[in-house]
Protein 1
Amino acid sequence: MFRFLVRRTLGALLILLIISALTFVLFYVAPRDPARAACGKLCTPQTLALVRHNLGISDPLPVQYWHWLVGVFAGRDYTGLGHCPAPCLGYSFTNHEPVLGLITDRFPTTLSLSIGSAVVFVVFGVGTGMIAAVKQGRALDKIASSASLVGSSLQIYIVGVVAMYYLSDEWHLLPRPQDSAGFTQDPGAWFKGLLLPWLVLALIFTANYTRMTRSQLVESLSEDYVRTARAKGLSRRTVFFRFAWRGAMGPIVTILGLDIGYLLGGAIITEETFGLHGIGALSIKAVRDNDLPLLLGVVLTAAAAIVVANIVVDAVYALIDPRIRLA
Amino acid sequence: MNTPFLSVRDLRVAFSTEDGLVRAVDGLSFDLEQGSTLGIVGESGSGKSVTNLAILGLHDREHTDVDGEILLDGKDLLTATERELERLRGNTMSMIFQDALASLSPFHTVGRQIGETYRKHTGASRHEARARSVEMLRRVGIPQPDLRVDDYPHQFSGGMRQRAMIAMALVCDPELLIADEPTTALDVTVQAQIMDLLKDLQQEFGTAIVFVTHDLGVIANIADDVLVMYGGRCVERGTRNQVLRTPQHPYTWGLLGSMPSLDGPVDVPLSPIPGLPPSLLNPPSGCRFHPRCAFAEKVHGGRCATDSPPLEINGGGRGTACHLTAEQRREFFVDYATPQPN
Amino acid sequence: MSGTDPLLDVTGLTKHFPVRGGFPVRRTVGAVQAVDGLDLRVAEGESLGLVGESGCGKSTTGRLITRLLEPTAGKITYAGQDITHASRKELAPVRSEIQMIFQDPYASLNPRHTVGKIVSGPMEINGIDPKGGRERRARELLEIVGLNPEHYNRFPHEFSGGQRQRIGVARALALSPRLVVADEPVSALDVSIQAQVVNLLQTLQRDLGIAFVFIAHDLAIVRHFSQRVAVMYLGRIVETADRDDLYENPRHPYTRALLSAVPEATASDTPPRTRIRLTGDVPSPLNPPSGCRFRTRCWKATERCAAEAPALVRVEGNGVGHLTACHYPEAGRTMTSQAAA
Amino acid sequence: MSISRRNFVIATSVAAGGSMVLSACSSGGGGGGTGGSGSTSTAKYSAVSIGTADDSKGPAPEVTGARKGGTIHPIGPDDFSHLDPQRIYYSWNSTVGNLYIRCLTGYKIASGGAMKLVGDLATDTGTMSDDGKTWTFTLKDGLKWEDGSELTVEDVRHGIERGFASFTTEGATYLQSALTGTNDFRSVYKGPYGGKHLSSVVTDTAKKTITFHLRTARPDLNWTLAMHSYGAVPVKHDTKEKYDKDPVSCGPYRIKQHSVDKSLTLVRNTHWDPATDPIRNAYPDSFVFEFGPEGLQATDRLIADSGGDEFAVMAYSGVPAERIQKVLGTADLKARTVDGLLTGLYYYAINCKRITDVKVRQALNYAWPLEQIRRIYGGPSAGEYATTVLSPDIAGRVKFDIYGKLTKPQGDTAKAKALLKEAGKLGQKIVYTYPQGASDAYDKTKVVIAAALKEAGFDPVVKPVESTSYYDQIQQIDNQFDVMWFGWSPDWPTGYTLLQPLFDGTTIANGANNVSQLNVPWVNAAIKKDAVIADPAKANAAWAALDRQIMEKEAPIIPETYQRRYYLYGDKVGGGEFDPLFSAFILYKLYAKA
């Protein structure tokens, strides 16, 4: 397992490097000039040049990228803003906040949003999937499958806004979702604050998990070793959970890992709908403000989340199914 | 005659599918004594495997209706509750399958799977169950059983997996073992080893065995009595020698004629049974073999196509379901079967 | 064995599949020695049986002969032309003369093509237009293999296993080949259907004079079909001879053990043949035993067997063309043959 | 916000205005004509004056019914981009700047919007000499920083000198150019960190005076000094680039906590002495800004008025079009609304280098369909027709309507066609452009514009430009456009800040704001002459006259609208007033009801 992790981590670093270079190039392809924003109303060419110098974007592209790279690995000194320690992702063009600080400050919101909604769609999705599989073909199966299908076709920004309007504003059942109450200080408020976004975000994923769980369980229930287990006299319940469920778990864990990796990159629509300040909201700001360091930071966070999710998923899959040998 | 250990009376198994009712087993009866082996032979679609699953009650109740009678030690399994069946399965009666790799769980070690059955029926501790598993693995001839007990099925070779499955089936010393084509997927040398193993275990444990296969050679080697199935029905029964040396039913002749032998004449072509196996959705009327039977028109009044011949059983359990008279059978058998030595 | 030039002449045929792994860089760490120095000859119109247990390399040999796989070493000569490393272009003329029949009737036919297209496929690919058109030729072929020509526009899923195998045979005959490699053509079929296909192949060989390499694990069927038989064990031929010599006078311990393990349907009251039971399983081709590869399961193996691999030669007491690769070949004839004499 | 003040004001209100629902009839109650429906009197901004030394004495006049205590929650879409005074130029940053920054002068805003320039840190609005080339101010007593240390003239000078540093590129540049006589002022002086002071600024700590010696006469310098870009900064606590994170307050509130893009909390600055401050009241104990909700979200929360939003106010994102009718139509919501005209003017600049014939430019003015355009923006509630360059909030602005746009807002195509025939320019090709993607309103207005131009005998060609690179393209002097949608807002309410940047021929350059590239000798001379008129009243009258002459003789632009914006506040909030200068709430007048 260790060798597998080492090899895959090296691969991951390479991927992140390539993505960062690509983002750099793509940023400068766009016709907009980041310096104009900080140049004030009467923007004389001299001021513009000074701003470019301050932002460090007056050097040629490769030099800029090299400085950025050195910053990431060895830290970097900025005139006036002082030294930025080793994993230094630079300072945001607009508010000169350290990008790493912005991301670590926003990540807990995205993390709690992703994990929370993951719990919801796993419980509901897999739950209904199991019921549908056990009660295959009968009414309950049809209801469970179609209900989750309807759920997933709704759009966050409609359901979210309507839900928020009624649940928070009209009936005051739930407080307005906001991420200010950190988990540690006040878990109660944190939970109530994020309950609505969890439910709404989970809506989309539930159907996938219902359908997938149902088909995986139906398939593994028809496996020979399940029949052997019953031939050994084990009860239906034991057979279901110890054998059929174990067989179905592999693919579900894989998809779950990838989905969480995707969510950790920032659920932009959900964060916007509920006014949550997660990585998603940060990425919108980065794009709108032409903020290269912040953009790089956000893109790399999302990419890292997905790449790590992939590695974890492969490792977990090998734990579930002994037949798989990690290269 | 004391009551037979296992007796199946007029067993019918039918599946409801989208295209209609599939009558896989259509009135099958047989008995099995303690310590003896009944060979059930038949081609695919003859209903042999369905019978096994019916005995263990493993059919899906919604889509299958099973009726008739299956008495195990006097107790009718068809009316037993699921809980009662669970107590019997793996304890009093157990089953081994053709493809051991698919039939053993890939997620659990061999030792755990064997121990599981033992613990379920004897309430033994995990430690005792493990010791029992090692013991059983040694008994079925697996080298270094104390090491291999912690291996997974995919780490075993074909032959060893089959042995592990047998160990699992016999761990609670069952009185009845149902074997569904256990050697078909094995190479001939390994197949021989497994058959020897089953015969030794039968002597040692006195287990009654129902051995299902399509290979008459395997039947000849292991079965005491033989039952030939075609289209969900029994067409011929008797002891091994009776059925193999003096077969009465044209289908049995056809099977024997289709098999090349190691020392028979070579230049004479095989005499196969023409046509295709019967469809179970709308089986042929009357005797289900009549469309492929070379002697159907020999029976006057074309009764083969109209009414299905009953299985007449004489005293010794010998029986055939065919309208041909005994005289006609003797005469046709002689010129049909190629000259068989001895 | 006819003295004339053999249709197919294979010497030292070897195929090793590389096994990759290792850390941190993936490289070849071993090789599965599927076929390891095979010599065999097939004359025009002759049928050679290739028999052995799973993992002995018989299917790989079949794929090497039809050049679906490229050999690691050795030479394959077909009708005087060396096709060992021939490129696709060079193989073209030869390709139409060597055809193959596969084991699984369900997987070897394209479910989306009609029977007609399947059978006339080879003609299209090789651009051959028989007189009277391809369709007529295809219908003719269906008739030859015992199928109703009206089935021309039907799809494979509408046929039984046996019928599909016949379609496979018809496809193989489309280009009137001189050599057909049949890889376990009947082992997936029921006994009665099996016999029908074996009879069909026999009549085709007799009438069309096609040379066959008949690969199977069922010794009885191989005996029935082939004039000469080669027994393989772990990538090597341990014994090859004419049919009667091999079945009645097997000299190699493995052949003897194989024959004794086959369950015979002709139950006779006389005591069964000398029962030889091999212990253990076929070793892994990743690192086969040194010297004679059968030594780990042979009851009379000695140090010499481990040190020196026995050559495939005509040992003393063998008929013409009867070659055995064993330092201590078995003596005398088998029980059955004595009884028959 | 990242885009410059001008774009910002335009972009946001465009977003607000632009996405107005195309309501056929004029919205809300109230008659048609110029009187905006439901708007209070339109003339309320004409009163801009200069206050006396007495006006400059604190404390600020009490807001009737106000009470101390409580917390106000402004909700805005985005965090403040800068808190360092020398880097504040956007009005969004100025709304919070009012609470902790003080400059030499400031505006005392009476209820109803009348603005009076008074001395803030200075005892009065300063004394001008040498025809506007020299200005002197005296500091009041009792001015303290939040840590209790005394605010001296050195701190005021330090604020001015920081405007030259390399990191304050976002701030205003008027004073720096006036002191050094060149726009490239950083090449003359590099900021206070080199140990050298700016020779043209003389301070006398004993007498608490500070004197500015300008290279060019600037009679309206005291207005310029009211900009937050020239706020004082304590020499001892100047952390240079880091000052932007945690500025030191000399105003009624100080910054307690700031979590970027999420929230900003200000609490009372105990060392601020109300007696020294004629402008700011300080009723609430604290302000807690919440960043994130966009216009629609913030409006809905204010409408719901629950869960703590009773103390909230909309900060800088106005009520969007979708909610205008609901807000103006419901009595209790309307009672919690403040509205006003945005500073500045929206217009269509005519490229005088390509359209050289004045008659054609006048024909364009006649033909332009203002009524149809305003209807697309949402009718009268969206704002008023513009007919002059100077916007209503400019001191001394005189309203005139040369091209009869108020009588015939739908456009007089017949007169336009006649003019074209007269000039022999029938079928004149006109290339019209606007920012595409900023809002869908312009995709609709282009249709009515093209129709009107065709009817008037022009050959209109519409070529929209992607909104994010719109300004880069139309500010190229060799662009291929004839008529360009544009907008401009002044930095302080005098004629100079509109006419000079838009029509001074000498400023024409790539990236400059004289987009119509008007370069007429008599106009350039008039601007130079009016800029140095010392007496404010005379100067204002001169600017108003120039406004009329330019529109009459040159018609370089087609004025469109003065946009109106609406803000909602919670029902527990009192003292809501519309700030004519920064188009938002005047935070320091708000109070929290019991």
Protein 2
Amino acid sequence: MAYMHIGKDFTPPDVPGKVTGRIKYAEDYTREGMVYARLLTSPIPHARVVDIDAAEALAMEGVLGMLTADDVYPDGEPQSTGLKMLTNEPTLVGEPILAVAAVDEKTAETAISRISVTFERLPFVLDPLDSLQPSGADAYNGGNTFVFRQGFAVEKWSADQVASFRAGNEPTAEPQQTVAYGDLEAAFGESSYVYEGTFTNAGYPHHSMEPRSALAYWEDGKLYLHGGSQSLTAFADGIAGVIGVPKEDLVFVNAATGGGFGQRARAGSIPIYGVPAKLSQKINRPVMMRITREEEFTIGGARQGLTGWLKVGFKPDGVMAACDLWMVSDNGGKGGGADAYSAADCVSVLYQADAVRFRGTAIGTNTAHRGAQRGPGQNQIAPIISPILDAAADELGISRFDIRKINTPMTGDVGGPQRTPFTSAYMPEALELAAEQFGWEERQSRRRQTNGSKVIGLGIGQGYHNAGRSGMDGIVMMSPDGRLKVHNGVGNLGTYSYASTSRAAAEVLKMPWERVDIITGRTDLHLPITSPQDGSNSIFTNTRTFYGAAQDMLAKMKEIAAIDLGGAADDYDISNERVHQIANESIGMTFGQVASRAIELGGKYTGSADLPEELAEWTQISVSRLAGTGFMGVFHDSVHEGNPPGFTVSCVEIELDKETGKYEILDLINVAESGTIMHPKGMENQLVGGAVWGIGLSGYERHLYDPQNGMPASTGYWQSKVPTYLDTPVKIQTGWVDLPDPENPVGARGVGEPAQGSVSAALTAAITDALDGHIFGASPITADMIINHIAGTSENSVPLAQNNFRG
Amino acid sequence: MNPQLTRRRFIKGVIASGAAATTTGAWYSATGQDRPSGFVERLIRLNVNGQTRSVDVEPQETLASTLRYKLGLTGTKLGCNRGECGACTVLVDDTPTYACSVLTHSMKKGRIETVEGLESANGDLHPVQQAFVEELSPQCGYCTPGQVMSAVGLLRANPNPTREEARLAMAGNICRCGSYDSYLDGVMRATELIG
Amino acid sequence: MVATSHDVMPDIELYQPADEATALDLAARLGNEGWLLSGGQDTYGWLKDRNKTPSAMIELTQIDAWKGVKETSTGIEIGATTTLTEIANDPLVKSRYGLLAKAASVVASPQIRNVGTLGGNLNQDARCWYYRRGLDCYRAGGNICYADSPEGLNREHALFGASRCVAVSPSDTAPALVALDATMVISSSSGQRTVSAQDYFVGPDRDIVNMTGLNEGEILTAVRLPNTWANAEFYWEKVADRNVWDFALVSIAAVFRASGNTIEDSRVACGAVECVPRRLESVEDAIRGQQRSEALASNAGAIATDGARPLNYNHFKVPLMQNLVKRAIRG
Amino acid sequence: MGEIVRYKRDVWGEEVILGVSWDLLYVVFMAIVVLLVVHAIVMAALAKKNLDRPTADGRKIVRHEAVDRWFHWLMAASILALIFTGVSPILGLRIAWLDLHWMSGLLLTFLVVAHIFRASFWQDFKSMLLVPKDFGEPFDSSRKPGKYYFEQKGMHWAVTVVTLAVIVTGVLMFMQIDTPFWDRTNSMAEDQLGLVFLLHGLSTLALVALAATHIYFALRPEKIYYTRAMISGWMSEDELAANHDPAQWSPKEAD
């Protein structure tokens, strides 16, 4: 299909502001009379605040006030997991206890250091398996796990059960959750190669570049909140509730967000924005609260660590017959996500096993909170499963490419425990494209070639994430000058999907891009509800809404033309920013004229009547404020059927030095299968960015806690090991399949998350390959682990080592 | 208080037959107006983006603080404030420098350039900025000003770097979005734009 | 409270002496209350965290006499406030003492090398994260080590010479200077003294809170490299997790005088395995007068780690160190 | 001055004892010097012109067996080594002191334990016992003691208590460092550890004071023959008669 905008490169309007430094992030704003807040955070991994003595601090010159948990939760703190604004019951080191506002940060910090907080220390735990011990400590006040709708609970295994699991055996305890399909026993019976083993994934922090700083002030009864989010409206919708301000009285300002990666999607992940808001209300001054890198570590959240056992069976023809997964998830100090389930779902989708069983238990630890982080679950399992596929291929005498091809998901297949059909799936094409572009076959001759202490390793990997939701709203407006205004609540965090999705509306109305304005950056510009822009869903989800809103406008244009120029609406079409009769193109009116007429006609044409039912409350507020101000197209999306998958395939060639445990990535390709490509450059960015994340997951990033005292060590980039320019290849190749998905009007699906998983899978497979097939069953695989393996000193490569700490 | 200080003071005390060692604080007040040479004056003139600006700078102030909070040049970002990320990179006498990890007073003799100072008088983007736009190098954009400044510093020292040289020169800038490849594309395009 | 994140530079005085005498006078008068500031890359973190609280900083970089590389009759002399970038790019250093140029070129990141100085790199404090976090451990004057225990995070810590504190020498240039048999020039208001690079660094057995033998009021002003090892064959390698910013897991600096394939003499030092750069005299003795060979390299590697006492998570440093010694000798 | 105890923050930021304030070394040092100087002056002023000192000539009797003298001097040496290795780094001397310190400590511990056994079962333990009536002894010039006079017994028991305190705390501290026998753990809570350091420090200060006093009195001319007795083992009959009550102590003759 020949598109005007879809699939074409363009410059998103915010890019010049990013290269000139003009675009503003939350901490770049100032406000007359602004004061500065700093946090006092818990020094203890699990404690109860007994007393706060702030008299000396509050008496200091320049100190304006203090906010504590008692101020923000006058009726008591919520008794559930999840982040709180402030707390008297910290469950991790670094959890905010109180905030102090002062005329400058230095004074606020000095004041903080003069506050004396008396804590009652409570037992703490850092490893979920320790917590499962009969006498193990519980991370939360009330238990070590949180059951939805039931509350805190205590989950314990026998000492033997824990010891047996640690020793590498299948857990015998009752799991909290079991999901299964197919006849597992029969499938293993058909298998000629069965792999059984344990694995661990280190959790690791988000460390997005922009810390979660925020500015808040109150004017005319309205709260103005400057912060960073992944979606302006989905986030604002939630944070209003967190802070306790009516939605119509909140103005959320968010022109740019310095990195999201999952934990800036929903208000529940950043209740800390409520602190400057509440403090501002209390002291009646604008309050800027800058978050430091160290604070970002605990406030910003982290990936779940998984500790698991798995058994995978392959039939003689290479078909994955069965996969049995048992995982204990590290849920951190504030509850976590469903990574383990997603991991099992991912295996089912990617390898189409006949029978899959997932059993899992999620246990809290007194570490940073866990939650969404670029492919939660799917990406942890990717580097674990890929080397197993290779082992099966080698064992069964099938090529490593073919075993993936044999098990590939395709259109018409179903995936996951719910056996959900794909909306479309072009994985075979992606595999072929990646292999061809990379020269996978030709490179096989170099496999395990040595050069002194160096050895070549090759790896191929696949990534998956469910990449599309529906049910959101769209608003487009047109003014008498004929410019299209796409009111877009998708956050600007570097995916440029706020712009890409807007282009769906321009496409429908066949408008040149220069005539389109994206209305975004602050919610008082009246934006519709959007998805939270997490889970790789924005492209699929929000092209549907803006396409729909533009279709609504198009239909209204034709109606107006019919009213003014006669005939029926169906007699009209559009071209060159005119609506005209199909039969006689000279009879028509310009978009500007249509917009003017729409404003005269009012009613449904300006959003004053006949609105779609089921518009979200947030959209209703926006529409009501826009009503009558211009020609409006408005749309509420229905719910789609099936699973729109985001797929990627990666190939990696490394040269590993057996004497240093270091490797260089000689070549890397990351290929997307995500339906129609909306924006090639944007796609390229997602693929290279995902690749860097994959390299971090497989080789570097980790979450260090000292088991002796619960102290976090990875509070900066130094210990967290975010990959740098020199840890990534000089050039990363990209590619894409570009075939349309039927459930999206322009055929597009998302891709952000799988882009990491496939690279992680391929890189781990390459490391394994270079080490003659040694399966570590771990992410990351660091230099010391490789050296230990080669030298036979494996003190710290014991399976099921505490997943927060791998040396 | 570092106990070592106490110990050291004790030693001094013994040597001086019991006289308590003076702390610097006491020493200042004792010397009063008569401060020793080398003591910094707070009111200084800074050459920033080609303009000389008078600014009151505390002795301990970092250049990033002065730029962001005294001069309103918020293009210079604080990503870590510890020299571990590069978002605050500015040029001092053409040399890429972490503004978070130098004192303004240490740099006051230098020619300071921030991302705001790169555009030409008529508003044209600097070739590096232009190239970064064309290559869509930035993702979230938070590290971008630092990446831009490192690239400008590189191209002033070496107008025709190889991709590998560019990679080495840019290495002190973290991009959490992982856009390294796109930034390198941008640097290479910039070398073409500069010609 | 330790865990609360401080991030702003606290009040502290700054002196910017323009000449040597003033600087030395300030150093003497301020004593321990004065913090010697060079590039500052190991200063501001301490101060922002409020984990070190001196009253004043004495900036040394305004003094021209302490900057730059100059030729002398016995070799070259490098001012202590010469930046690492300048050293890495200096033609004289590159041509005669390539080992040091190489070591200086891989410190931290480009921007840190642009302001970070040789003196700062040599005098930087231990990088043990417990210590850096402001905990009152032995090195901070306390009575405990959090790293040296069965559960402590001691992957980056010492194999040798630990005494209560198990932190290692983090400097990349220090082992290079030990290998090159450099002499450190130390000035104070009462004059100048020199000490060999090897003796400049002090382990925790002798001084648990300082990593060098610099006394109060003394300033490291220059480093002299002798002609003895100019234009020698050299080997340098640093193995770190990430290739930017990270400190060495193990590094090696070695210089050789060889005739043909025979090693006549050598000096070999490893970084990040002990609190001081570890000079490997036993290796030097074992290879003196020997032909380079794989067997010699392997043997030397094994000798190098004699007496290593690994902690729980740093066993890998033993084979890694052996491998690096091997590679150095293989050439 | 003023502070006796030094505090630090434990790993979670709470204030705990770190140890003794070493400024007290200075206090102890000055106090002992003042005390001993005053004593020396007073003694000099009180000194009779024609001091009637007992003669060393004549029959020699045994005061200390050779084995006891060895015990004494080895203990003295180890205590002095402990004080030197322990205190000099505090004064800023950069020496590798810790190994010497714990080795001396082990030696002292062994000697003390052996001495306790020996004194309890094979020596005349009663001769060193300090009983209530001994406290009247210094004020009654007519009374003469047995083998040890009051001040000697006092010094012995003071040194005993302080040495035992140093040893017990020292052994606990020894268990907190890496040695050839074991790898350290962090098994002791930081507040307890601080208490141990404090007690070790306080007993060190006491030991320094006692050692200085002991050495001073050992060198006093009027009692120098006790020192000689600790070196060579014997006293003269005259010296015995001048100071001791033969009814309570009747030593055998030296060879």
